[in-house]
Amino acid sequence: MKPNVVVYNRIAEEQVKRIEEHCHVYQISKESKEFMNYLSKAEGIIGAGLKVDKKLLDHAPNLRIVSNVSAGYDNLDIEELTKRRIMAANTPDVLTETTADTIFGLLIAAARRMPELDSYVKSGKWQTKIMEDQFGVDVHHKTLGIIGMGRIGKAVAERAHYGFKMNILYHNRSRNEAAEKELHARYTDEDELLKHSDFVCLLAPLTPETVGLIGKREFHLMKKESIFINGGRGDLVIEEDLVQALKEKQIRAAGLDVYKQEPLGDNHPLLHMKNVVTLPHIGSATKETREKMAEAAVENLLQGIGGKVPPCLINREVL
């Protein structure tokens, strides 16, 4: 008898068919009233963004694997999953380069004020050469500070070092010797990084320890001409403090792809600031990359359901 699997989003029809070769599939939105009913029968679930905690797991007594179509997994209670001997898997490698493209593009857009000046042209205001108060700032040969030198952080640093000849400072839970050797990145504490960086790029993972990592104190440490980029998670930043820092010109500008609440409300102050570039959480959002992520997640699911070790198992303790 085929095992039951719940598919709830980010899986193309061709990948669903691949799962159906081995499993009985319930394809249903996680917002559906019937979702919990199907979950009670499931041995595997696959998708992105579902909060898998004790409350949900109490409705899933047969569950053997959760396959996240995402590199991040702060939506998963890993401790609770491990306690119940349920495998958790993610897709950490396939989105690295695409996400780094997005983050570095966001940095350039904020530095050169591209969205603001695009609107200036399209609104018909471009009647003569632009004035100095509309100038942006250079990116090349500046100092980039990266908080979180994991796979994506290193990929961003590569673009900065090889393409823009930037100096790289970084702060991480552990040293990244490859980044130091290949990119001449310099490891430093967070305060020194904030004080000396022209661009501060936040890519740290979201954990109980990193919630609210950047707030009023940290913005005060930054240069007044610095530009803040958040490509990690919205909860890493105290958003009210970011808004205040931008209003009071404690920092020059910000480029954001993630927020505390997504999507942003219509009246959110960030939407009314010219010196903020706002993207709708598009880090890995290209057709090619999303297809690769789904393929990797399906492989994790099928290996786990089949009694084997998923290629990207997070909680290896379950073995």
From TrEMBL:
Keywords: Oxidoreductase. It holds the Pfam family 2-Hacid_dh_C. CDD domains: GDH. The keyword Transmembrane does not apply. The keyword Electron transport does not apply. GO terms for cellular component: cytosol. InterPro entries: D-isomer_2-hydroxyacid_DH, D-isomer_2_OHA_DH_cat_dom, D-isomer_DH_CS1, D-isomer_DH_NAD-bd, NAD(P)-bd_dom_sf. One of its GO terms (molecular function) is hydroxypyruvate reductase [NAD(P)H] activity. It comes from the Bacteria. Residues 104-283 form the D-isomer specific 2-hydroxyacid dehydrogenase NAD-binding domain. Residues 5-314 form the D-isomer specific 2-hydroxyacid dehydrogenase catalytic domain. Belongs to the D-isomer specific 2-hydroxyacid dehydrogenase family. This is Gluconate 2-dehydrogenase.
